[in-house]
Amino acid sequence: MAKHRIERNLRRLADGSWRVYRYLIGSDGSRRSLGAVESTVSQTSYRETEKRRIVAALQARSGVLVVGETGSGKTTLARFVAADLELLGYPIACVSPSSPKQTLVKLAEALGVPTESLTTGKALNGPQLQAAIAEFLQSSIAFLVVDDAERLGRELRGWLAGMLSWQQPMLLLATLPPRKDLFLRLPRIELDALPNAAMRAIARDAAAELGIELSAADLASLLERCGGNPMLVQREVRSEFLGLKATAPDHTQWVDATPFLVAGLMVFTVMRFIGLGFNSTSLYLLGGILTVAVGVVRVVISSLPRQPQKLGA
Domain range for residue 295? Predict the structure, then answer.
């Protein structure tokens, strides 16, 4: 069993670049610095098209919902969007929901909105924070970025939906957002799996940060297990570094059962004709029953809601 692990801390420097600080964590909790490296993973946007579309939509005072499976790069994409908007001089409030009150406090602090009453000095309650933030946003151009937005409670979703009436720009990122209220009102961008070229680049960069090299065979095997998911490819590189056994693929995989059902219908239809030709009533009836059964299964499957089961759900 491995007696150590690698911990990485990502920090943004004054010049806007990102740097990764690596530490070796021993089994006794000891911490030893492995030095700092330039993080090409963090500096390179592999979803440049999506980033440009989101930035343009937000500048047009629109809301956007980004949906993708766990590890598909939603948080990284949000960071690049926020960085671009910051370079343009816009205030940005980036939060991940916790309790309703704490979420509002985080938003207020990020926007520079007071969280205490200027007259009494007491902390503002939830409705007061909502009113103070809304008043600030109506008089200023600022952007809201909410990661893990599916964790937003009904009250906060309703509050954010109300802001859309005056075209408050906001970016929400979610893995499995509920199909209701706020999430139905926002234009949606679905994150597809990254192409192999981008996945290879991420794997090489992650390996370089750990000081290891991956052969072409290692890369091919690694990419096959990750299915275009950047989080998984970085996890697999860390596993290689620690000498851990590779696991089976755990990204989303789908098989279309329609050809099998059609083939079954054809086989059972032929069975009926054979029964008719040999004057076998039992074979004829069995073929008919099985044909109807397969048809019913096909109708049931086609009527099911097409909600994919995402990784990590």
Answer: 258-303
